[in-house]
């Protein structure tokens, strides 16, 4: 049955697919450049899907699946590469969503990151937030940051991931990588356990939950650097969301802690190219300079994007400036630029 999985994966991977959806007794669906496509030539039964689960999962993963009726894990598949498996029930039958993990580590230069980002990563403590909508590259960007650290700094790195996608080999740094839910139950417990292994850097796939964010900030205050992932938006929207999800009486204290500990936010989107050959990454980057720190602490967010736009020397970027540049270069269309822009007036239409 593994050969059946390999055959399907190879059919869609050669097209450039990022994801594969297997539902019993239905055609295979895959995601190509952000759009869902159908592969009519392959239909799998539930028994075939169950065999794929059995052959790719560990006993622990199957135990969790039996109890929770869903589980996520990663596995290396011969001739295909590393895959992330999300197994769940659909109308009472087992189904799988697969993601192809690009195991290549990007250099910071390739992502267009300036020296300010390298300087930030060299600091001993603080909070780094990496954000994107699902499937638009935050895991790849976190891997690039960790790869840079691994090659340049003698650090102890502890990761909490759902699941472990990029597997690191120790270079200058030493890694402990723990997978949810197989190695640890949730992000909060993972962040609490990080204390016990004396890390320099802690990586969390999610800081969306209030208890996880509070624990991440506590780790920063104790002298760690925390690299935490969250959902998309530009840098101001991300900060507003993380703060405003709290009860009004708790927001001022959280704002003060974030202002003090935040070092950098990197948010990204993948934008359809005009030539239909795929998507191009754009970044919204905030470096927490003293001026930015004052805006966040005092809740003076009306000046945030203007100050961010003036901070190119420090390494900052905005989505809108990059979209306007891509429209001028005819790499993306004006319609697409306006669709993704925060301030639509920045895009000439």
Percent of residues in β-strands: 25-35%
User: Rough shape?
Assistant: globular
> How many H/I helices?
13
Low-pLDDT runs of 5+ residues are: none
Fraction in helix: 25-40%
In short:
The protein is of the alpha/beta class and about 350 residues long. Helix content is about 35%, strand content about 25%.
Features:
7-stranded mixed beta sheet, 6-stranded antiparallel beta sheet, 349 residues, alpha/beta, 37% helix, 13 helices, globular
Kindly describe this structure.
- The chain has 349 residues and is of the alpha/beta class.
- Helices cover 37% and strands 27% of the residues.
- It has 13 helices and 13 strands.
- A seven-stranded mixed sheet has the order 9-8-10-11-7-12-13, sandwiched between helices. A six-stranded antiparallel sheet has the order 3-2-1-6-5-4.
- β10, α7 (210-221) and β11 form a beta-alpha-beta unit.
- The longest helix is centred in the middle third of the chain and has 15 residues, at 138-152.
- The model has no long low-confidence stretch (mean pLDDT 93).
How is the secondary structure organized here?
Elements: H1 2-13, E1 19-22, E2 27-32, E3 35-43, H2 46-56, H3 59-68, E4 70-77, E5 81-90, E6 93-100, H4 115-121, E7 126-131, H5 138-152, E8 156-161, E9 174-179, H6 187-194, E10 201-204, H7 210-221, E11 225-230, H8 235-244, H9 248-261, E12 262-272, E13 279-287, H10 290-297, H11 304-309, H12 319-328, H13 334-340
Parallel strand pairs: 7-11, 7-12, 8-9, 8-10, 10-11
Antiparallel strand pairs: 1-2, 1-6, 2-3, 4-5, 5-6, 12-13
